Amino acid sequence: ERIAIFIGLQYQRKISPAEIMFLAINIERVRKEH
C-alpha cells in the first residue's frame, strides 16, 4: 500500500515525534474519507 511505503521511507531517516503525529493524523483522515 502506498501509505505503508511512504511510512517505510520516513522510518529510514530520523524523524521527530511531531512528524509521526502529523503522519498519523493524515492516515486517520484518509481512512475516514474512504
TrEMBL record:
Q: Which domain of life is it from?
A: Bacteria
Q: What is this protein called?
A: Transcription antiterminator BglG
Q: List the source organism.
A: Escherichia coli
